[in-house]
């Protein structure tokens, strides 16, 4: 009996010095060195402009980084800075039918991102992310644009988060 208690206590003592870490977001941030972040507003430089796209993207970026990390937002000397621009927001015809008319339209968005780690410049990178949604030509862009923009920004923000913070 005493031997069993001794073994249990020894196991607890040995394993108390071990640290197991797992993150469901896939991030590998050392919060002792990296504490702050600044996500600049993304500008819209695309030829076709949806007026609120820049604001929607910037806010979704901040939301995801707030929910998925312990980083605090600051404008003064942040450990990490993320900035970029929407460089493509365009329509293209898809699925041409036998009568030479397209039955679907693809809305594509591309975002260029600059990630700067001010504590470890070796991690700095410039990346480009793209996403698209397809809709029927029975609808106009103005009828589906809000829904498509919400889907596309959610997708591209996930891509940006994984490309900048995830350590897969």
Give an overview in words.
This protein is of the alpha/beta class and 168 residues long. The chain has one domain (29-164): Double Stranded RNA Binding Domain. The chain has helices at residues 2-16, 53-68, 141-164; strands at residues 36-39, 43-44, 72-73, 80-96, 102-117, 125-136. Strands 1, 2, 3, 4, 5 and 6 form a 6-stranded mixed sheet that branches. Helix 2 (53-68) packs parallel to helix 3. It is elongated and about 75 Å long. It starts with a helix and ends with a helix. The model is unreliable at 12-25 (pLDDT under 50).
What is the tally of helical segments? 3
Radius of gyration: 23 Å
* Low-pLDDT segments: 12-25
> Would you list the SSEs in sequence order as H and E?
HEEHEEEEH
Report the helical percentage.
25-40%
Structural class by sheet pairing and helices: alpha/beta
How would you describe the shape?
A: elongated
CATH architecture: 2-Layer Sandwich
Characterize this entry briefly.
The protein is built from 3 helices and 6 strands. The protein has helices spanning about 1-15, 55-70, 140-165, and strands spanning about 35-40, 45, 70-75, 80-95, 100-115, 125-135.
